[in-house]
Amino acid sequence: MSEPVAISDVLDTFTDLWSPRIAGSVNDYDVRLAKVRGEHIWHTHDHTDEFFLVVEGELRIGLREPAGERTVTLSKGSLFTVPRGVEHKPSAPSGAVIMLIEPTGTLTVGDRHEEVPAHVDVTTGHPLA
Amino acid sequence: MSEPVAISDVLDTFTDLWSPRIAGSVNDYDVRLAKVRGEHIWHTHDHTDEFFLVVEGELRIGLREPAGERTVTLSKGSLFTVPRGVEHKPSAPSGAVIMLIEPTGTLTVGDRHEEVPAHVDVTTGHPLA
């Protein structure tokens, strides 16, 4: 990454949903971009927080916390961090583009998850084309 | 950060230039937002990369690399990481809003820097008002 990367240029390189591209890095963290629509799955990262920034559209994140289950809604230009150990389920009924920041090697489905349907890519992120 | 944070709401809370607000975190990293205009200073982070995302406007980053000095220009929606150890100088002649991601405690002027003028805030980032 010796030159700046335009998010729009990255988004032009793929159409896959729930399949993050690694757009950059900072130390041992990845900056990933994903196109999403519909529902991801309930999953938990036991050892890391997960940061979300909504670039386009609206993202919902279901959270199963000690106090109960709730859903937060992130509009375009909003950010939120899911704390490590909190079971969560992203969804985007109308579609969204999101930026994620998490340690390199973090799996999209976490350390524990429900059954993975065909539309969810189990990956640590794909390099840019 | 138990609720999503809208970048626009954070920007409404301050007018200071070159004075980052801590809008979120992920593990031991801060997500900071800063309003910038004019020139920052040449400085170096010896132990960490520094990630920039341009939210509004245009940001330039001067870089003093082994091969020589150059300037990269980031338009709105572009990202770039300054590698650890690389002397750099952000500037924004027409003003910009930027998001930074770096380890909690990272100083705005790095570990080594030129003389700090009055318009540059020496800080590890300010909590949200």
From TrEMBL, chains A, B:
It comes from the Bacteria. Residues 38-80 form the Cyclic nucleotide-binding domain. It holds the Pfam family Cupin_2. Gene3D superfamilies: Jelly Rolls. This is Cupin domain-containing protein.
